[in-house]
Design a protein that fits this description.
The complex is a heterodimer. By secondary structure, chain A is mainly α. Chain A is built from 14 helices and no strands. In chain A, α9 (about 165-195) packs across α11. Chain B is about 30% helix and about 20% strand. Classes of the chains: A mainly alpha, B alpha+beta.
Amino acid sequence: MLLTLFGISLLIFTMLRLVPGNIADIVFNAAGMIDVAEKAKLEKELGLDRPIPVQYVEWVSGLARGDLGYSYVSEKPAIDEILPRIPITAKLAGLALLFAVTFGVPLGVISAVKQNTTLDYVLRVISLSGLSLPSFWLGLLILMAFVAYFGAIPIYTNPPKGFWNTLWLFSIPAMAVGFRSSALVMRLTRSSMLEVLRQDYIRTARAKGAPARTVNYRHALRNALLPVVTVIGIEAAFLMGGLIVTETVFNIPGVARFLVEAIRWRDYPIVQNLVMFVAVVAVSINFLIDLLYAVLDPRIRYAS
Amino acid sequence: MNTKLGALTLVTFAFATLMFAQAGEPKHGGILRIYHRETPPSLSIHEEATFSVNIPAMGLYNNLVVYDQHKPQNSMGTIVPELADSWSVSSDNLALTFRLHQGVRWHDGQPFTSKDVKCTFDLLQGKAKDKFRKNPRKDLFNNIVEVTTNGDFEVTLHLKRPQPSLIAMLASGYTPVYPCHVSPAQMRTNPIGTGPFKFVEFKQNESIKLAKNENYWKKGLPYLDGIEFTIISNRATAVLAFVAGKVDMTFPTEMTKALIADIKKQDATAICEIGPINVSTNLIVNRENPPFNNVEVRKAMALALDRKAFIDIIYQGAGDVGGTLLPPPEGVWGMPPELLKTIPGYGDVQKDREQARAIMTKLGYGSNNPLKIKVSTRNLATYRDPAVVLIDQLKTIYIDAELDPVESSQWFAKVARNDYSVGLNLTGNGIDDPDQAFYENYACGSERNYTHYCNKELEALFDKQSVETDVEKRKKMVWDIDKKLQEDVARPILLHARSGTCWKPYVKNMTIMSNSAYNGYRYEDVWLDK
């Protein structure tokens, strides 16, 4: 895991330096002029004139000490800029995943059990729409519908107060971004279930007279879940991409939108540390998924 | 007779009462909510060059003098005192003395004195110990030799040569007075001013909050308890937020004609104004490299332009044809239409293009042998869209152009390196004044003279108009210079765009400036009728 993170840190750092321009270029571009001396002074002030390897070592050693440096734009400690945004995105991502699983898995099972019925066709159309509708378009459509029918707009302008307000404010964007994931989970659960439902042990369970509910949810679903869990893990990491758009449309000041803004400004301390944070989260989720395999399928435990 | 007079008095009184009742007595209280289009780089006006900063930050500060905030057209006649109670000019026009208002305090309680004015100009001219990170308007104050104080409440600017327009620069939203005792670094993150609103917080991507300055030196002001700018970078969301009443006002001068129509359809009560913002879209041609070092090629390009098509296609007709200075009636110094028509490229498009084709044919180009070029521009819609129209128009004179979109951060660096042949650029003017426009964009060696146009004779005329105190005489001189600039194809102006602002009917006393997008955001007497 540490080796993976080291590799990621090298990759982030190098790629960021390969992008043309730095904060000094952006700052002067915003003013519509380039003053070479003032630009060089700013680069020196921010330490951008030092050799790249020195900058890398400084960043990584700072990271090890818990010192993330200062944001070039706000001139505040990077940690103070990043930390308050993490819970916002965590809530949104958590709710989106919850939405994906709560709707995707049961509807996938229903779709498989009721294969080739009207209900199955309807659910398949819904899941296909989920995969093909871009989340920014869906988000805007939701906002327009709210304004047209309720005269209100569920966007973030101030931090919500209380649990229910928070839930209300985050659940709509979470649905917009989680719709795609739920569709993917639904389709995967369906195909995985269809495969499992044809297995001999399911036929045996039915022959033994086990009720359909027990056969479907206890015997079949548990075995069908392994690929679904893998996809949920991958989706959790992919969610970041969807969140960039959703946070922009619903005006949520989370990590994803902040990252895009920081990239635009070439605010290296923010981008490096944020991408590193996302990498740590993705690696941790995959580690948890590996552990979950063993829980779902005892054979994996015995094999290891 | 008496009865008639009595009846007239009664009617007049009734009418006046009705008008007063309609206008309403200003009310104190409430937070004005405006959406902001982006996270501004900082709130230090002197270090930035975008009205994304002026709009939220102008209420934090005061100037020595300022444009009357309720007269849409900024001109010499609309400049009013602010931190300076009065000002006088020496008989030789070389000293400008300001008598300062007494009893003014900075937001942190420190007294405001003449030293602060001196410090501000020292910072602007790079003479202070502390330095700005960047100083985009330092050239505007090159004519100031020295700033001297006479006691705590009198300050004099000593000039190299007479410059009537200096007072206009001082009245701009770009020229607030900064405190001596606060560093430029702190002014970027935690600004202190003397203005009607105090800085509360600035969260990137989230909001900027200002609160009422309870000790504001203008008694009874401001009316608002505060202003909250919610940063909504997605314009579709921002428009919906305005329609739904989540914000009271759109970001000033951000609405297009189409968006305003959409807003009015959804909220008929919204008050929307559309007008020029003094930002020109222009063509920059690298006159140092062949074939554009040949004046004939540049002339042919200027003759190919159909300015009305640009305005109709990109701005649905919301734009104006003009020269360097914003055209009348909103612009004070722009050339009148009858003069514009005499400039090559501003007349009959078909005839001009025939002439352009003749020039190109003479130079060896034709439909089978077109001149192949790249049109470079910043990769932003406001730049890219006119560049595409330009490419289409150049085809009519045997120029086969290809779009070269340049990453935004690299645009000015590329232009400064002269690494382009033809480009499309946007130029904003902080004030509607010839000095700013001429010296900044056309003076030899100026950092923003992107085409490196250098005409010493014309530069002498810049100086001549600059010292002229008679406005009408100066106007004629300015027109001659502007005409010459267009004829020289120094930087052909394609159009001056118009854009709009909308606010809810309960927002009162809101005035949008008609010839600058940088000067009208003090908001000290804006109030909410709620």
